[in-house]
Amino acid sequence: MQIYLDHRSGAAIYDQIYTQIKTQIISGGIQQDEALPSIRSLAKDLHISVITTKRAYDELEKEGYIYTVAGKGCFVAAQNLEQLREENLKKLEAHLSAAASLAVQCGLDCEDVVEMLRFEMEES
Question: Is the pTM of this model over 0.85?
Fold first, then answer.
């Protein structure tokens, strides 16, 4: 499992960890019942506070992406990947609708918006 932190992004460190682990779970990069690194181990590897790592894990557990076994650690929970994908597609549609409205207000055509989207996806 790879986690990359961008200290200049403006996003909270715990949120970057949460988002990257969640993305890896949804994409299948981390499989059901696979053990995650311990909170202390991940904090040490990323050179961050244990509290920050714990907050990310707590958020993932609260949303049902992971579960904790006392004395054993944290593991990836079973997911309904199709439902998660649908939820993400709905979010994407809402964002695209807002982007389309802004594009019209700015006088951009479809090709301009597609080019901007292509650039953003290449940067991600």
Answer: no
